[in-house]
Structure formats: C-alpha cells, structure tokens
Amino acid sequence: MIADDDEKWLAAATSAVKQNAFYMQRAIDSNNLKDALKFSAQMLGELRTSKLSPHKYYELYIRASDELRSLEMFFRDETARGCSIAELYELVQHAGNILPRLYLLCTIGSVYIKSKDVTAKDILKDLVEMCRAVQHPLRGLFLRSYLAQVTRDKLPSIGSELEGDAETHMDALEFVLQNFTEMNKLWVRMQHQGPAREKEKREKERNELRDLVGKNLHILGQLEGVDLVVYRDTVLPRILEQVVNCKDELAQCYLMDCIIQVFPDDFHLQTLDVLLGACPQLQPSVDIKTVLSGLMERLSNYAASSVEALPNFLQVDAFSKLNHAIGKVVEAQVDLPASASVTLYLFLLKFTLHVHSDRLDYVDQVLGSCVSQLSATGKLCDDKASKQIVAFLSAPLEKYNDVVTILKLTNYPRVMEYLDHDKNKAVAVIIIQSILKNDTRIATADEVDALFELIKGLIKDFDGLTDNDEIDEEDFQEEQNFVARLVHFLYNDDPEEMSKIIFRVRKHILTGGPKRLPLTIPPLVFSALKLIRRMRGGDENPFGDDTSTPQKILQLLTETVEVLSDVSASELALRLYLQCAQAANDCELETVAYEFFTKAYLLYEEEISDSKAQVTALRLIIGTLQRMRVFNAENREILTHKATGYSAKLLKKPDQCRAVYECAHLYWAEEGENLKDGERVVHCLKRSQKIADAVQQMSNKSRGASSTGSVSLYVELLNKYLYFLEKGYPQVTGETIQSLAELIRGETKKAESGAGSFITSTLRYMEFQRQQEDGGMNEKYQKIKMEWFE
Amino acid sequence: MNYLLGAFKPACNVSITFSDGKNRKQVPMKKENGQTALVPLFQSQETLSGKVCIEPYQGKKVEHNGVKVELLGQIEMYFDRGNFYDFTSLVRELDVPGDIYERKTYPFEFPTVEMPYDTYNGVNVRLRYVLKVTVTRGYSGSIVEYQEFMVRNYAPPPPINNSIKMEVGIEDCLHIEFEYNKSKYHLKDVILGKIYFLLVRIKMKNMDLEIRRRESTGAGANTHVETETLAKFELMDGTPVRGESIPVRLFLAPYDLTPTHRNINNKFSVKYYLNLVLVDEEDRRYFKQQEITLYRLKADTSSV
Fold first, then answer.
1. Element containing residue B279 per DSSP (H, E)
2. B158 within some domain
3. Which positions in chain B touch A97 (Cβ < 8 Å)?
4. Where in the cell (chain A) (predicted)?
C-alpha cells in the first residue's frame, strides 16, 4: 500500500521533472536565460517533496541532477558570451524556494570556480555555508551530495590548474571537511524523523544512504594536498571529532571503517594513537571489534606487503598502542560480549604474528591480556566465543609451525582453561596435528610437561563431567590415536633426558582412566623399550644416575603395565609384559625378565579365560620364551615346564596338539649351546602326535570320513619333524618320519582331504631336499624311505 | 457621419515635448487602464523645460481665452476618486487670448522645481506629477492635455545604519535570535543576516522571510491601512537543531519596492517590514515583524 503510493508519487514527480526539463532545454536552446532559470527552478521544486522514501528520492534526485548538467553547460556558454557570472550568481538567488535556489547556486558556483574570476575559496565557503539552509535531513543530504559532486573536480588542490597560493589546498580541505560534518549531522538526524514505530525501517533506509556521507571521506583521501602532516593535524582530528560527537552507532561504525579503508596505511600507522584514542569514546553499542579488526587487518597486510614499513611499526610502537587500546575498549564497554573481545584479541594476535613474529613476548602478552579479560567472564558457554578462542589459539601454531615455541607462551594454557571440554579437546588435537605435520620433536622433560598440560583435555576426563554418554566412540578412538602418535614425537637423543621424558609422560598418561590407558600405554612402553635398547647399545650408564638405568625403567614399566591389568586389558598387558621380558633379556637382567614372565603367567592363569585368547597368549609366551637367553637352567626349566603344562590343558584338542609341538622348540635353542635336549623335543612331538591320533579317532567316529582336521595336524607335525631333522637332531630318525608319512598316506586314502595341497607341497619339498647335491641335506633325507618317493 | 464626428473632435492637437526628451531617461509607469507607458524621469530641483505645440486641424481656427501650462504635484485618494489634492502647483501663461490659425509653438520652463515626493502608485493612494496644458475656451470647453512624468528622489547612504538584532521566542518551545545586517536598505540592496536557533522544540516545515508594505492613508479616525506582502522568500527547509544558524541573503532588486515614505503631506505613509515566519508541521505560523527603512540610492539610477 505504502510502496504503491511511493511508486505513484515518484512517477508523478518524475514526469514533472521531465516536463520542466524539456521546457528548460528549449529555453536553453533559444538562449532564454530567464526561462531556463524559471523551468529549472520548477524542475528542482519537485525535489521539495516529503512523500518519497529515501530510495525513491534518490531516483528522483539522480534524474534531476542529470538534467542540471545541461544547465551547467548553458551557464558556461552564457559566460563565454559575455554574461557576467557574478550577475548570474546573484540571479539564481532570486528563486523564492530555498531548495531550487541552492541547487542552482551550486551549479553556477561550480562554473564560477572554473572561471577563476574569484578565488575558489570564497565560492566554496559561500556554497557550503548557504547549504545550511536546508535542514531537512533527506533533502539536505542530497543537496550537499550534489554540492560535493559538482565541486569535486574543481577542488583546488596541489597540481590542479586552480592552484592559488599555498593555502589553497587547505581551503579545499576545509570545504570538504565542513560539508562532511554537516552531512553527517543531517544523516544522524534522519533517525528521528517520523514515528518511533518505524524506526527500524528508517534505520535500514538510513544505512542505504551512508555512502553519500562516506563519499566526502573518499574525496578527502584523494585530495592531493593531504599529506601526513595535514592528515595528522587537521583531517583526522576533525573527522574524529565529528564521529565521536555525533553519538550515533550507525554513523560511528560506518565512518570509522571508512577512515580505515580510505586513508593510506602509513597514515594510520603514524596516527595510531589518535585513531585508537577515539575508540573508547564511541557509543557502547558500536561494533568496535569490526572496526579495530579492520584496522589491524589492514596494518597486518601492510606489514606483509612492504618490508620497508616494518621499522615504522617498531618506531611507533604499534603493538603496545593497539594492545593498550583494546584494553581500553574492553574496559569501557562493559557489555561487550566475550566473543567480541576475543575477536579483538584474535586480530591483535594476527597482527602481532605478522608484524612482530620475532617477539614472542608480545604474543604472550596478547594471550595474557585475553586471559585477564576472560577471567572476568568465567568459563565460556558461548559457542561463538569458543570458536573464536579456538581460532585465537590456532593462529600462533599456524604461524610458527612449531609447538615448542608455543610451549614457551606461559599464557597459552591459561587461555585454554576457558574453553569447554569439546573445544579444549579440539585445540589439543590441533596442537598434536601440528606436531605430527611438522615433525616437531619435543625434546625436554619440561616441554613435555607443558605440552601435556596443554592437551590435558585429551589425557584425562574433566572433573564434574558426568559419564559422557554422548561421546562418540569413533572420535574418542581418533583422539587417543593422536595422543598415541604424539608419544613417539617425544624424543631426545640423550638417554638421561629421554628417561626423564618417559617418567613425565607416564605420570600424565596414568591419569587417563580405564578407557584411555589401553590406547596410550602401549606407545609409552614401546618408547621406553626403545630407550632401553639404546642404553644397552651405548655406554654403561655414564651418569651414575639411578633413574635412568634400564632396571629402573623396567621397574617403572612393570608398574605401568600392571595398571593395564587392573583395567581389564589383560591380553594387552600380557603382550607388553612379554615385550618387557624380551627387553630385560637383552639387558641381561635375569630376575627382571623372570619377574615379567611370572606376571605374564599369572595373567594367563587368572585373567585369560577365553580359549581363543588362551591359544594366542600361549603362542606368544612360547615364542618369547624360546628366545630368552638370560635364564639359568633352573628358571628356564620352571618356565618351560609351566608353558608345556598350559599347552596340554588347552580346551580343544587340535589346539593342544599344536601348542605341544610348539613347546618342542623350548628345548632346542639355536644359539644357546647349553640347551639341546633332544629327548624332550621328541617327547613333545610324540605327545603331540598322540593328541593328533586322538583327534583323528574322534573325528572318524563321529563323522566318518569327512573330517580333515587331523590330517593337517599330521602334516604340520611332519613339518616339525623335518625341521628338527634338518637341524640335525639325532633322536629324530628317518623311521619316525617314514611312519608318520605312511600314516598320512593312509588317512588321505581313506578320504579325500582338504589338506591335499599342503601335503603335496610338503612332499615336493622333501623330494627336492633329497635331490640336493650338496649341503648335506640330501644325506639326512636319504634316511627317509618312503613308498611315495618310488 | 465622419463629418458629424468631426464636429466634436477637438479643434487642435496639443503636444508637450521636453527639451532634453531624447536624452532623458524614460521609465515605465503603470497607467490607470493597467497598461504601462514610458515616461520621462525627473528628480527634485531639476528644471523642466520644453515646448508646447498647438496645431489646429486643417482649416480650423482655435479661438481661446489664453493658453497656460501647469506643473502639478497631486495626491489622489482612491476612496475620494477624482479629487486631487495639489501639493505643488506652478503656472506659466503661454499666450494671451486670441485665435490660432496654424501650428504654434510655445517654449516653457520651470526652473529648479521643488518636487519633494516620489511618484507613488499604491493601493489606496496615488501621488503623481503632471504637466497640464490648458487652452481656455469659452462656450465650447477648454482643451486640456496632460503629460505625466515621474519623479524619483535619491538619498545618500544614511550615516547611521545599525543592524537589527533581536531575540524572540515562545517559552520552552522555540527560541531564536535573528540579525539583519542593517536597518536601512537601498532598493537594490541585499539583506544579509543570520537566524540562530537557541531552542527548538517544535517540528518545523519551513521558514520564510517576507517583505511587507504597509500603506496608511488618511488621518485620525479615517485612517486606512493596507498591508501587502511583496516578497515571500524561503529561508529554511526542515527543522534545525539547537545551535544551528541559518544564513539570510535576500536580494531586493527583483521586487517592486519604493522608498519608505513617512507622512507625505499629512496624507499617507508607506512603510516596509521584514516579517520572519516560521511554519510548523501543523501549519501554525510563528512570526516576528521588523520595520526596515528603504531608500533610493543615487547609484542605482544607472540600473533599471
């Protein structure tokens, strides 16, 4: 409805403008000055309307001001024909209505300046003064906008043809500043026009007009006479005075931004304290963070783009000024949301990183300021603010690509404390990713401490957090994966320091709770074992320090792994024990190794009940034990005996069978001369065969010919025999193998078994060994007489 | 028919010419029938000289009881139309009674005539100067011919010309201070000034400056006052804020103004006022009227 009226009025006004413009043009064509003035005044009279919205008024204004261009030309021609321009200047002022009169005055004024009959200063001053007469915000704004437009190319500035004395450019400056001031006043006043309930709409419309005001600043920015001194002493103070005094949020916000965007970077740098000084004086509702961040961004880019600028930054001490200013702003604006203040610090940080990347103390100072700001608000629940902090904390990481540097920032962890759990973890992950990506070595125990302090969100549960039913298992795994990978980046070539690192890491990791430990302890253990091996390889503990002997570390590992068995990760614990035992073995620490085995056995007996798990565990035990060289005969006997015993007690017969023949290895150590107990080996094999027989019988009974399981068992046994045969063990005879082979043949004849290929390849291997010319193998194989070979 | 008409035609043609008629400045003057005619312009203390030419129509003779030329300064009130009050009356006898058979020319001269008042053409009153030639005749009626001319007197710039400055207002509503640079302006002058807004609590639509002429005629109980607005000049558009000052610049040239006349021969006065009018959004008018004195400056004879 209203919009319709708006259209209607615009249409009416537009056609009136067109009509009068037509008559004006006709008068111009016939050199009729009087009529030209009359119709132009009538045309401009249409701009007196109060009915149009700013948007529509703008359209009307454009149309009318377009028409004025031909009038301007006409005035110029008139003066060329000898008409006194001073008289014309008076003549247009006879118009009865103020608005047409002033439009005409501006038009003729611009011609007047160009004619150089009078000093531009006087005309400019007169025009800008006379325009005061239009106090209606919208109409005044457009009138002054017209004034700015027609005088723009005539402003006497240095280098232009209108240059008068040295003061001339100051006159132009004065003119633009004054016009700017008045326009801004009108613009600000617009909000009070009309009923309060339409305020929102009005503000929107007002915002659309802002460029009319801002254009003046653009003009100022392009005036050639404006150098740093002028800018510092005149332009900036005057603009800021107006900005501050207008006490209007919209204007302040827009104009501050304009100032920052329009004038050159080095001006800003040199007048930083003035510009910043204005910030706390702005209205509390002004979005100061956008303003300041714009400024800092510009300065950052400036510093990045030109190397020569950097000394200037130092010279004016830009950093502390900015830091100080932000502090002031935050202090002054009590209601500033946390997200806004964090954004401010974020931009300051970015600025610092750009400009003073070498000044870590500055960076820390920014963090510190942020902390003290956050301390007032407490923990952040605001999602936006949290996101800003994450960005804030990531910035130095991205810049330095080196976590070690970050660790030097004492305030860094303090900032993190204000994040909620999720965000805290996110930052921790970012930190770790940075380490992984950049292959950063964390090389001292203190750094480790600091690092774990930073990522403690990943390391342990937070207090007061109810059992997170929400936690996504996949995410959790991923996070802990990161931690696990991280452990390997904590490394120092010096064993002394490295062991310290391990002690510290352990301390931190142990706080992790049952869910994390199974994932985080293994890397720690392996890292420690690596160290132990290194120590063994190197000199014998040159420091005489107790903490870094292998014993101590192994002792530590015992305790560490024990924790795992407490959190029902027994299988893992068992594996780790065995790993440790191996390490102890390498270090010739018999008792320690024995201790580890004991623990492993205990776990096997008490904790591992699943039969499959038992099989796996037992194999590991056997495998490890077989390689142990450190034990004396007695200890070894005990452990071996125990293992064999376990083997025989497995639930499934095939498993038993396999475990038992594996045990045979325990009596036959390749390197250790002292251990070649042939009797026992054969004993084991025999026993295994017996079990296999039993399996065979059982399967024959239950399912007739279809079973294959035992046949493969036999083949496996056959392979074991061949192994020992090759090793040259006297008790393994050709006859034994022969009989086993016969047995297999018998069984396969009975039923076509699935183990066919296994048998065939075994036989082919035997055949191959028989044919060997040298190496003595053929001799051993000659002993086996088999029908199959015929 | 023509013959008959001819019988009533005046017997002769009387014309009046000024001796410097070709060089003398002519100015337009509105006649009673609404048309404007160009008439010569004089000022006080000038000598009016010229010739009166009487030319009888062909074949006629003019008998007369004497020919005279008069210079009259007259004031005419419109409510008393037809009755002239002559404040100046000078007579020159041109001829003794006799007959005129052919064209006859009489030179005349009124040296340094005192013409203290300007020609004026108002709403209710008119002041005019005229040369009147009378060919006095007996029964057939005298032949009378008029030649109007205009008188404008010039004044030097006044030695004292104070500005007009005043503070006016409505309590708690509007408070302004206005200033006009002078109190006396010549007719081609420009009024400069400023309006300061000390307090603004009303929403204003515009502010105008009017030039008003107040013509009062008669005396005592019969005084007639007529006020005309000669100029309406918009000074401001919209509502200013406190502390704002609005410039005034009004050129007087385009308006049809006369000097201020005070008590002309006890018959009439013409005074001028500047009326500052503020109109609010409800179309209420707030105004303040100030008298200004207008005078004619010598220099501006060249223009117009």
1. strand B268-280
2. no
3. 234
4. Cytoplasm; Endosome membrane; Golgi apparatus, trans-Golgi network membrane; Prevacuolar compartment membrane
Residues B212 and B241 in one domain: yes
Beta strands in A480-564 (DSSP E): none
User: Three-state DSSP class for B162?
Assistant: coil
Q: What is the CATH number of the domain that holds B285?
A: 2.60.40.640
What is the value of ipTM here, to two decimals?
0.88
Is B304 within a domain?
no
**Cβ <8 Å between A96 and B240:** no
- How far is Cα A764 from Cα A94, in angstroms, rounded to an integer? 124
Any domain includes B116: yes
- B190 with B146, same domain? no
Put simply, whether A38 touches B (Cβ < 8 Å) is no
Tokens of A588: 């010739």
Based on the fold, state whether residues B144 and B168 are members of the same structural domain. no
Looking at the complex, report in whole angstroms how far the Cα of residue A196 sits from the nearest Cα belonging to chain B.
Answer: 15
Locate the chain A residue with the closest alpha carbon to B238: A136
Pick the last residue of a domain from B116, B151, B186.
Answer: B151
Task: Quickly list H helices, A628-708.
Answer: 633-648, 653-663, 678-703
Does residue B186 share a domain with residue B106?
no
Indicate the residue of A90, A130, A137 with minimum beta-carbon distance to B247.
A130
What's the Cα-to-Cα distance from A96 to each of A103, A287, B195, B248, B249, rounded to whole Å? 13, 45, 18, 13, 11
Residues B168, B147, single domain; the answer is: no
Which residues span the domain enclosing B215?
164-295
How do residues A674-684 score in pLDDT, each as one tens digit? 666 677 777 77
In a domain, B2, yes or no: no
Q: What are phi and psi of A440, to 5 degrees?
A: -80, 135
Both tokens assigned to B226: 């007529």
Could you give the number of structural domains in chain B? 2
Contact (CB<8Å) B238/A139: yes
B16 & B136 share domain: yes
- Hunting for tokens 């009387």 — which residue is that? B14
| DSSP 8-state symbol, B150 | E
pLDDT digits (tens, 9 = 90+) for B136-153: 987 778 889 999 999 999
User: With 0-12 CB in 10 A as exposed, 13-18 as middle and 19+ as buried, what is A787?
Assistant: exposed
Structure tokens at A538: 């190197």
Those residues with Cβ within 8 angstroms of residue A87's Cβ, 6 or more apart along the chain or in another chain? none
- Last residue within a domain, chosen from B122, B151, B180: B151
Give the number of A-B residue pairs with CB atoms closer than 8 Å: 54
Cα separations in angstroms, A15 against A21, A59, B82: 10, 12, 53
3 state SS for A153-171: HHCCCCCCCCCCCCCHHHH
Q: Residue B215 pLDDT more than 90? A: yes
DSSP string covering A429-455: HHHHHHHHHHT--B-SHHHHHHHHHHT
Q: Do A98 and B247 touch (CB under 8 A)?
A: no
A582-640 residue pLDDT tens: 777 777 777 788 888 888 888 887 877 787 888 888 888 888 877 777 777 778 778 88
Q: Could you please report the per-residue DSSP string of B229-260?
A: EEEEEEEEESPPPTT-EEEEEEE-TTS-----
Residue pLDDT, tens place only, A490-539: 777 777 777 777 777 777 777 777 777 777 778 877 877 777 777 765 54
The tokens for A465 are 């957090």
Residues B272 and B213 in one domain: yes
- Same-domain check for residues B195 and B140: no
Q: Which A-chain residues 54-113 have CB contacts (< 8 A) with chain B?
A: 90, 93-94, 96-99, 101
pLDDT for B303 beyond 50 = no
